[in-house]
Automatic annotation (TrEMBL):
It is an enzyme of class 6 (ligase). Its EC number is 6.3.2.3. Keywords: ATP-binding, Glutathione biosynthesis, Ligase, Magnesium, Metal-binding, Nucleotide-binding. Its cofactor is Mg(2+). It comes from the Bacteria. InterPro entries: Glutathione_synthase, Glutathione_synthase_a-hlx, Glutathione_synthase_C_euk, Glutathione_synthase_N_euk, GSH-S_sub-bd_sf, GSH_synth_subst-bd, PreATP-grasp_dom_sf. The keyword Nucleotidyltransferase does not apply. GO terms for cellular component: cytosol. This is glutathione synthase.
Length: 486
């Protein structure tokens, strides 16, 4: 709940100073008129039990290890996701591209790319069960830069406006959870780029290609990563799928070549997670989506470090999350986990059920509807149905579409004990019952962790009012936040 109590508001000059710090440090969204809008934020961090956070630090790289190994098991991806492809058109496109890249049986690879898994695993700390996975993010898994900046923002407020910071702090008996997300993701990318250049017997500056949406407004988070890579000696370039459709070519030994740039070492997708990302009004409607989606396939046939590969996108889908959740410990061990590691992964997975006639009957007659969320295969906001609305939605889903949906146990996140002062679009509001989502980043290259912390690469905290379903910072009621440990 958002409440107004202006007597507790900060002086306008303090708010202006903090917003200017944000924009000066790239914590902003680009507007249509090329101005910048600051990212909404809380005035002080959330708190979390240190042992809960340390558990996540231990388990999240194991989740990534499992997902990475599943993503390279191409026969399993095709056999396990074929029904989902029949139920969801975009999934069908992805699986079709995957078959072209890795053979109809998943055993005959025509792909030369090296997998660079930059993954964000999102958790909420449940009141009774502890931290549970909300979703895996394996494509366009950005905002590590914003995560780092969120920690720096609260440090700035603490140092420059300490009385305001202390007033809204939950406890003074906590320590900041350091966050090197920006630096560690860049280091992981650098390791992969150096390996690619070694494979070609080359030296010199690596080249990093970021594939972006046209007229993107979330450019500053992207540019922060590019600036960090430039500090490490990279040349960075940005292109849309449409631009790449006429600018890519093949060099010797399957070297990926970009027109007027030269060889590419790393490709990083910040788009491509939905059908509309492959649509261009400038191209013929009958062929544009096919043309642009095949750009990914063309890239994958070259010796380049790539995130996200088609198989990584399939392996981090909601459909695979449900399959992984319902696997046995022994099945996890088929993909390189020890028994102890498999137990740790199991400990953070919330229950998920496929949509079947018997499940629908159970849900309508026996289930506590408020304890479940209905999810489809979409990424980003607007793809979940909650509570009593689920039954109505289930009636509208055709049986042939069942495999594109899943019921997931609802996570009841721990609410903050104190109200929180928030700033959105320059306006102050005091919010009761704020809850937070923590996303932990990991980076693996060719199956191995490539950060200074065993694959872990920092975190992103997004907070929202407990009564809001859409918690994204970019699209939703989410706020940029940071973390303190008790």
């Amino acid at each position: 709940m958002t409440i107004s109590n202006e007597s507790n508001y900060l002086p306008s000059e303090i708010v202006e100073d903090i917003i200017e710090w944000e924009i000066m440090h790239g914590v902003a969204f680009k507007q249509h008129d090329s101005t910048a809008r600051h990212v909404p934020f809380s005035i002080a961090p959330m708190k979390m039990k240190r042992n809960h956070f340390e558990h996540l630090l231990k388990v999240t790289p194991l989740v990534s290890k499992l997902i990475n190994n599943i993503s390279e098991d191409h026969a399993f991806l095709q056999s396990s996701l074929s029904k989902v492809a029949e139920a969801e058109p975009f999934f069908k496109i992805l699986l079709s591209l995957h078959k072209e890249a890795h053979g109809e049986d998943g055993l005959s690879s025509f792909s030369a790319r090296k997998p660079l898994l930059i993954m964000r695993t999102d958790f909420m700390d449940d009141r009774e069960q502890g931290a549970k996975v909300i979703e895996f993010n394996g494509i366009a898994a950005g905002m590590a830069p914003f995560g780092s900046r969120g920690t720096q923002l609260h440090r700035y407020i603490c140092e420059q406006h300490n009385s305001a910071y202390q007033k809204w702090l939950e406890t003074d008996e906590a320590t900041v959870a350091e966050n090197e997300g920006l630096e560690q993701v860049a280091i992981g990318i650098a390791v992969s780029a150096i390996e690619i250049k070694k494979d070609f017997g080359e030296s010199g500056s690596p080249t990093f290609l970021m594939v972006v949406q046209e007229s993107e407004d979330n450019v500053y988070d992207q540019h922060l990563l590019e600036l960090e890579l430039q500090k490490l000696g990279f040349r960075t370039v940005r292109r849309t799928f449409e631009q790449l459709s006429s600018q890519l070519s093949t060099g010797q030994s399957k070297r990926l070549i970009l027109e007027n740039v030269g060889p590419i070492d790393v490709v990083y997708l910040r788009t491509g997670y939905q059908c509309s990302d492959y649509y261009s009004p400038k191209l013929d409607k009958l062929v544009c989506c096919q043309t642009l989606s095949r750009v990914r396939l063309f890239i994958e046939r070259h010796h380049v470090a790539m995130n996200a590969t088609i198989s990584q996108q399939l392996a981090t889908s909601k459909a695979m999350q449900m399959l992984v959740t319902n696997m046995s410990i022994d099945e996890y061990m088929n993909w390189g986990l020890t028994y102890e590691e498999a137990l740790l992964v199991k400990s953070v997975l919330a229950d998920m059920n496929p949509i079947r006639k018997e499940i629908i009957k159970w849900f309508n007659s026996e289930a506590n509807k408020e304890d479940w969320v209905l999810k489809n295969q979409g990424e980003g906001g607007g793809n979940c149905v909650f509570g009593a609305d689920i039954s109505q939605k289930l009636e509208l889903i055709k049986p042939q579409e069942y495999d594109a949906w899943a019921l997931m146990q609802r996570i009841y996140a721990i609410e903050r004990e104190k109200p929180v002062l928030t700033i959105r679009d320059g306006k102050q509001a005091i919010v009761n019952h704020l809850i937070s989502e923590i996303g932990l980043f990991t980076v693996y290259y060719n199956g191995e962790p490539v950060t200074e912390y065993g694959g872990y690469a920092g975190y992103l905290i997004r907070s929202k009012p407990a009564n809001e379903n859409e918690g994204g910072i970019h699209s939703g009621q989410g706020l940029l936040d940071s973390l303190m440990l008790i």
